[in-house]
Amino acid sequence: MTDHAAVIAFCEAQAIGLVVIGPEAPLVDGLADSLRGAGLSVFGPSRGAARLEGSKGFTKDLCERAGIPTAAYVRVTNQADGLSALDGFGAPVVIKADGLAAGKGVTVAMTMAEAQEAVREIFSGRFGEAGAEAVIEEFLEGEEASFFALTDGSTIVPFGSAQDHKRLGEGDTGPNTGGMGAYSPAPVLTPALQGEAMARILTPTVRAMANEGSAYSGVLYAGLMLTREGPKLIEYNCRFGDPECQVLMMRLESDLVELLLACAQNRLGAIQPPRFAKDVALTVVMAANGYPETPEKGGRIDGIPAAQANGAKVFHAGTTLGIDGVLTANGGRVLNVTGTGRTVAEAQARAYEAVDAIDFPSGFCRRDIGWREVAREQD
Ligand code: AMP
Ligand code: GLY
Predict the structure, then answer these.
(1) Is 264 in contact with 252 (CB distance < 8 Å)?
(2) What's the whole-model pTM score?
(3) Which ligand is the nearest neighbour of the Cα of 139?
(4) By CB atoms within 10 Å of each CB, which of 57, 125, 334, 340 scores lowest?
């Protein structure tokens, strides 16, 4: 993906009509710019626009200029400034490496000692270039929810909500991961809160990016904190999340390609906005033993057809199919086992019924995906 010329040559040889760039690293690296320069239709932001995910300091400054609600912050470029900035906040406080750090650059410090340690770690070079700068910010209290929008740089349309479970362990404990499960929609993000997030956060962001010469086109994934003062931006991603994407796709009724092409060709305003089923989708990540540190590769997986027999869908995130027809694990997060239903409880029951049909002895999953919502539904 870092060899832009090779990607262009492949797309030309295969007469590719639409390129969707999934992960953040090639977007931040400017792959979309290179492909557009070669005349290809691309879904995904330019290098300049992908700074919304690639530089936390850039995004905080943009929020400040545009009056977008987010945590109070300071940007620092060395350890001494970082340590003295902590005093202005007190614990709890949040410390973030500025650049992409594969999900490991954020520390929510409950004590000053932890905060100081996080600042030292960032400036020790552990995150390479991502840690040449840091953002120190106010700790926000509330429930988190993810909100998605599609945009071609001028038109912006909501693209659904989700909540994920980032922690490895049940009850949302243990180390952070890429996500152990998710569901969509997120009922906490009510229509009124979605309207507020569009009006005060996402639309002003897209306007500001266009006005400043870095029009953002693609999917904008806003991580929101629902505080007592309303939704505040925690961070942006410039891609569909994983496994948030899987639950959004289960509910999408519109033609995805038509929407993505319209974004790529600056005509999102000319087509019907995305439509989603009212149903809930819930996905459970089956990971390889040892994930996230040292996932075991090569474990055999059986039972996928049985798992899908009752309408559940199994997305392959990290598998390989051998020439012998045997499916094996080939990554950390291996399968996304996804169910749908009228309620979160129903979608959860369907997802776990499918999980139980899968024989993956060297894998594991959390058994409580969606717990918060299931409890609320029972109230
Ligand atoms: P990230 O790895 O960038 O997705 O962020 C990690 C997590 O840190 C977020 O999902 C939040 O749970 C938490 N977080 C980030 N910023 C704040 C903040 N200002 N206040 C409270 N929690 C935060
Ligand atoms: N599941 C979180 C993300 O994709 O960033």
Answers:
(1) no
(2) 0.94
(3) 1
(4) 125
